[in-house]
Amino acid sequence: MASSGYSAPSAPVFSGVGYAIWTMKMKAYLKAFDLLEVTETDSEPTPFRDNPTVAQITAHSEECAKGFKALSDLHASVSNVIVIRIIACEYAKKA
Fold first, then answer.
1. Where are the domains of the chain?
2. Whole-model pTM?
3. Taken in order 79, 81, 87, 92, is the CA torsion positive or negative?
4. What is the 3-state secondary structure (H, E, C) of 23-61?
5. Fewer beta carbons within 10 Å, N or C terminal of the chain?
6. Close Cβ partners of 91 (under 8 Å, ≥ 6 residues apart)
């Protein structure tokens, strides 16, 4: 099996200096993992209708996971001092 030569980048870390550059890098990072939209909207995944199909359940689960993944990535990309400020946020947009 041939390797593509691509390895996933690590999230840029914000320490309190260079916010504009970190924001630009973080947006690119989130776009690479299809998570940017989750951080820019307040909407939650659409609730189930009666008798959801397996495909609908799977899609809902994936959308929920995106929100938690984005929030986790944000926590991992800031210094501990900043994490303390945003730890109570339940959604990536709020952080």
1. 19-86
2. 0.77
3. negative
4. HHHHHHHHHHCCCHHHHHCCCCCCCCCCCCCHHHHHHHH
5. N
6. 42, 67, 71
